Amino acid sequence: MWIANDWSDYEVIDTGNGEKLERWGNYILLRPDPQVIWSSNRKDPRWKKLNAHYHRSNKGGGEWEFFDLPDQWSISYKDLTFQLKPFSFKHTGLFPEQAVNWDWFASLIRSRRASAPSAEIKVLNLFAYTGGATLAAAAAGASVTHVDASKGMVQWAKENAAASHLSDAPIRWLVDDCVKFVEREIRRGNHYDAIIMDPPSYGRGPSGDVWKLEDCIDDFLRLCADLLSDQPLFFLLNSYTTGLSAATMKYMVSTRIIKNPETKIEAEELCLPVSSTGLALPCGSSVRVSFKK
User: Fold this and answer.
1) What is the DSSP string of 2-59?
2) Residue where one domain finishes, among candidates 84, 114, 141
């Protein structure tokens, strides 16, 4: 397990009965979590002091119930600051478990920068959402191309960059279909030293193209392999798709991305510590590839 345990502004307080009790800065949210199939004694008083509660519907989806929550607020992780707001299907605009991945690749970027200060490190962030990974890579010294099909998400990511004092960082913001963008980059002969991807289980591009992870990811990995530079630094694949195990993801990445048998590849569940129990809550999986020079 890779546990994101360096947060101060975020906390999973408790879990039980299909829900997780969280602290986002100064605010307490209760949200559904399909992994939580156990019960809780709910002794922590914050179970009864909620700022917002997302109620899942038996028919799919759900809705927020607000008690005392601003339209927008911010939290920080180390030197990064993120603007949060409750929006569609229980989300707040940030996946805190990803912080453990940010720390991993930021260390790799800083190490290469130290060994070659004048060399540009080009990172491609696909399905980049509100920019957590983009900002972590840029803060570490990389030039980042941020691609997401949603104009609203790209604008939100720009707001996070401004809040993190990274407005002037070398970040290229693109609203585009990720698959079509990668295909065009291959035709243009462009390459990247690192690729980060966090594809959805299901989605539609700006032109209505359907993306279904199980059907599309293997071919997409093959395309992305052609985008890596001659001296790649890392590759990161994240997934929240139920039924797609870390081992399955590792196998796919091994067959599509790795050309040198000495390349290091790891796959684990991402987890968040639960303060009331000391246990770790599973929150998806990641595959990490770090390339040797």
Assistant:
1) EE----SSEEEEEEETTEEEEEETTEEEEEE-TT--S-----SGGGGS-SEEEEEPTT
2) 84
Mark whether 106 and 192 lie in a shared domain.
yes
Q: Which of these ranges, 68-82, 99-113, 128-142, 194-208, has the smallest mean pLDDT? A: 194-208
Cβ-contact 156, 74 below 8 angstroms: no
Number of structural domains (the chain) is 2
Q: Which of 164, 201, 213 is nearest to 89 (CA)?
A: 201
- pTM to 2 decimals? 0.94
Cβ-contact 123, 142 below 8 angstroms:
yes
Q: Work out the average pLDDT over 50-58.
A: 92
Residue owning tokens 């070659």: 116
Rounded Cα gap, residues 155 and 199, in angstroms: 19
Question: Residues 282-287: what's their mean pLDDT?
Answer: 94
Q: Are 220 and 191 in contact (CB under 8 A)?
A: no
Q: Does the pLDDT of residue 22 top 80, yes or no?
A: yes
- Write the CB contacts of 251 (distance below 8 Å, at least 6 apart in sequence): none
